[in-house]
Amino acid sequence: MKKFLQNVLARALCVMVLGVLLIVFSEAITTWIVMVSGVVFIIPGIVAIVSYFRQDPQVRQLMLYPVLGAGCVLFGFVQLLWPMLFLSAIVYILSVLLFVVAATQFYTLWSIHRSGCPIHPAYYLLPALELVATLYVILYRKAEEVAGLPIILIGCGFVVYALLELWTIYMMRRHSAKLLDMEKEEK
User: Read out DSSP for 57-85?
Assistant: First the structure.
């Protein structure tokens, strides 16, 4: 149980930081994400190329690694030089991430309910709102006309998710304390 709560806390804090960053820097953060992912593509590409040419020429088998490495480096440079090409993709990737987060929250609440901790049905409202925000960003194309609105919605969804996860930790600790008190009374 302790490991579960630690995982929930770590997940909540990471998502809280991401959500706040998305809200505060809604205009620029998508460009940053694209540029960082460009660097993330460049580094393994360079490593693949260098490691291939550092091998003994008799041991080298396929020319696949330097070709893939060069492709990664090229893709990374395209992301660094022209991040606007990927900005709309980032909105949809973050939307899918928010969808996964909401689904995880539903599963967490269901697991807690299954373990015997009573959960009021209203707790399912926030993950449902996260799903609605995700569908709004994905389906309502005009939201992209208002710069940053989809990112702000996604950031708000992440913050709501993190707060609900922290509330989940509180509920679980309170429920486990009640169980311990009931066990002591039985003895």
Answer: TTT---SHHHHHHHHHHHHHHHHHH-GGG
